[in-house]
Amino acid sequence: MDKLVFITGASSGIGQALAWRYHQAGWRLALAARRTAEIENWAREKGLPADRYAVYGADVADTGSIVAAGRACIERQGVPDAVIANAGISIGVDTAVREDIDVIGRTFATNNVGLAATFHPFVAAMAQRGSGALVGIGSVAAIRGLPGHGAYCASKAAVVAYCESLRGELRPSGVKVVTICPGYIATPLTAQNRYSMPFLMQPEDFADRAFRVIEAGDSYRVIPWQMGVVAKLLRVLPNWLYDKALAGRPRKHRQTQ
Questions:
Q1: Is 152 considered catalytic here?
Q2: Catalytic-role residue among 22, 53, 56, 152
Q3: Residue 51 belongs to a domain with what CATH number?
Q4: pLDDT band at 231, cuts 50/70/90?
Q5: 220 and 179 Cβ atoms separated by less than 8 Å
């Protein structure tokens, strides 16, 4: 069967690595991002045949934009077998700074509302067909809040809870909902981090493991597994010890930094 995957945030990083992994597996690609020129350039550099992919310009923070891209995909390429809501942003915030409240709003618009809007055009069609996978990309940062990183941590915790809710709703339909929480991946999103990043993975390695998780239909997975162990240990730490362990940890860059 000639399978189709729809991927947001496909112009760089994890999204681009996932696109290449799915292409290698023989899937057709539906690639969505704001920066469509970057996708086209990448596809030409990789030598992707024109009939094996399509590019859709969309901003996941704009509900109408990403919904329109999903509908255009169905009309042009058919109902995907997998939809990967990968697009996201990560910006440090300080609640005492007025401008950062707007950053929090933009983070949730992209990482949460944008994720649901990405899935929206495909849910009914997949359920009617009785198959498919909706994949939400969370983060190990969903497990506990990190100082200065409240918008991202909170948004990714919401991704995990939302996907769990959706999984229960769609279980009778045969549509699977997969939540993947990456640890630290070497992408433009993490390049400016000012703190240590244990078990840092290359995007290609992450994409290969994520592909296998999605194919298996696992409901939840932290990649790499070592970060899953670390996350579980952090979760059981009492608050006083967790706060002490993070005291003095460098914070994520804010938008003005």
A1: yes
A2: 152
A3: 3.40.50.720
A4: confident
A5: yes
